[in-house]
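BUG-490 | component: ligand-complex export | severity: low

The export step for NAI jobs runs without errors, but we want the raw record kept on the ticket for reference. Input record follows.
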Amino acid sequence: MVQTATAPSSAPTIRQTQLLIDNQWVDPVEGGSFETYNPATGEVIATVAAATSADVDKAVKSARKALEKGPWSNMSASERGRLMNKLADLVERNALELATLESFNCGKTISDSKGDLAGVVKTLRYYAGWADKVEGRTIPVDGNFLSYTLRQPVGVVGQIIPWNFPLLMLAWKWGPALACGNTIVMKPAEQTPLTALRVAELAVEAGFPAGVINILNGFGETAGAALVNHPDVDKIAFTGHVDTAKIIQRQAAETLKRTTFELGGKSPNVIFADADLEQAVAGAFHAIYFHGGQCCTAGSRLFVEDRIHQEFVERLAEKAKARNIGDPLNPSTEQGPQVSQEQLDKILHYVDLGKSQGAKLLTGGERFGDKGYFIEPTIFDNVQDDMAIAKDEIFGPVVSVLPFKGVEEVIERANNTSYGLAAAIWTKNIDKAHLFAKSVKAGTVWVNCYHIVDANTPFGGFKMSGQGRENGEAAIEHYTELKTVTVKLG
Ligand code: NAI
Ligand code: MG
């Protein structure tokens, strides 16, 4: 389906793609397609088959059939786990090829893509282990009855994912869905449609029965919406923008679908004067600039205690200026392009807003080069809490530095946002660390570290950063229905 070269330095050659429905590679019913780009050059790399509601309908029928009848519905839980482990092995064996394709289509550096692939393999193996450990309970009830619970699959799940971590988001969604026995119709992001097709091909090779995994590329407003509106889809799992989640939640209300959402953030990263400064500077740098800031947990509000503020921002700016920006497939590159012209324009718009609202542009703020969607690592200093660059998710390499004086003040300001995905604190003082961890409204809190995310630990947002949790045991709940069985005894 998708041909790729294996050497990380060479461009993959890709034919026109198709859709995967019922383990068959097929053309879309309406024959539509769109182009996908290499964000490092802006050049077209492939023509991608675009699904519409007619294809969604076919895929949902196939997923329903696989759920209710045939090998998947009868498969023992441990056999499901074995299939998942086999897929993990195949992904591991093809990791270099997949990482190369990921970098080529998404713009992330090859080292970041390799890191993502390790996360994909880990996630599949972690949930493979869950497959035969999804258990109910026996519950003591009044009277002569035996009551027990069963955790059964939610059913046909529609999974809609974004472009910033295409394969990792796929694994976070496939892992618990498959472990719990659901069937999947996935719509990857239109910006990054390629790697999901290759992994789907590996899933067929691993032996997943027809209909268990269906992949439909296409646009949100057509293919995505058709999935959300389809009466025979039981659940939608979504990662993306908060405004898209609102549309999905409204539309999903018509059929009362289960929904889980992983959305954006404006995460506070708080540096106290008593922190290890070397580590805190490196940590704050990584927090915002990892994957060019295209990360829902990006540490985009950098609170720095006023006593160290001057020295801290100088050291941060020094590192920003030394950042190696360029071809994502070059192993020495530290920052690749943003994913698209649209994202580049959005980020530059926020840079303009920062300047016009009176923040101090310390470094960066310009497009880098004249080809592709690169942008300089950017630092705004002396940002006020009510400026747009302190409130909105920019999703680029732009950090807002906000000086502060004390712990209570900074907790209040950290929480003064509609988001609540992640937060971090850098300090040697355990009282401050635990007070912050308890008080900050965020689904993930890091102490003296940042972006540490593992398949084993729950991940998700407070407030408008999401609903439900992915990863860990928490995701199992969101991919099962709980059934109570009561039996009259004697
Ligand atoms: P988006 O939310 O529009 O796209 C994410 C996914 O949702 C894509 O697969 C898209 O096709 C699909 N989608 C879009 N509209 C839909 C609809 N009406 N029904 C069903 N599915 C739909 O995000 P987009 O436009 O790519 O990025 C815009 C901003 O969203 C970014 O600048 C960033 O701030 C945020 N974002 C957050 C992410 C996160 O990890 N939390 C990931 C990607 C974007
Ligand atoms: Mg959008």
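Assignee comment: Attached the raw record above. The CA atoms of residues 110 and 350 lie 28 Å apart.
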